[in-house]
Amino acid sequence: MHPQLLSNSLFLTLVSVTSASSAFTLSPPVDSPNPIQAPAAPPAALRSPFETRPLSLELRFGIATPTGALGVALEYSFLKELALGCGLGSNVLGWEPACWLRGRMVTQPNHAITLSSGFSTSNYSQNEGTNAGAFDLLIGPLSMMGESRTSELDFEHAYWWNTDMGYESRYEAFVFRAFVGIAALLNPSSGVPSIYASNDKPAQTPIHVLAYAGVGFGFAP
To answer: Which of the following CATH numbers is that of domain 49-219: 3.30.70.270, 3.40.190.10, 2.40.160.20, 3.40.630.90?
Structure first.
């Protein structure tokens, strides 16, 4: 073969090998996996309002509730399933502060079944018309008919442990709840007979539990 032709052939072969090597080096593997990425957070529209609006302020109404007949409550949700709250109300005889821990079973994004438990204190006067708590609305007037057979017991500071079940709903900023529960009196021996009671009437036997029920309306900013 002519030397010039041999030289040209070698040059073309070298160029072809170099081009193929560059293409192999620069082209990414077809089957190479994508880099691992953290899952994106769900958009706010798909998250529960118990998460997006964790703080709520409510006006409470009820019978023998931890915040009395009328009160206010402030609650903060650390998780959509767990909240801590405190409130202040009146049971006619005086102020009634309370605090509680609330658990939620979120059944739908805007609805939940709740279970709460906590502590409250209040002035309390026990008589035949207030023995049953929420049920006094029905049986209290019957119990008070005629002459009382016992004297009242007055508690300057009654301490209660409260546990209730309820329903809670959120519609944007609006909050609604309804609940029923039982309050256990922690210091039943602290009651003293009323000073105006007749001496011939025995003191009431201290109660140990009261039923209560209430509703709340409020907003979550």
So the answer is: 2.40.160.20
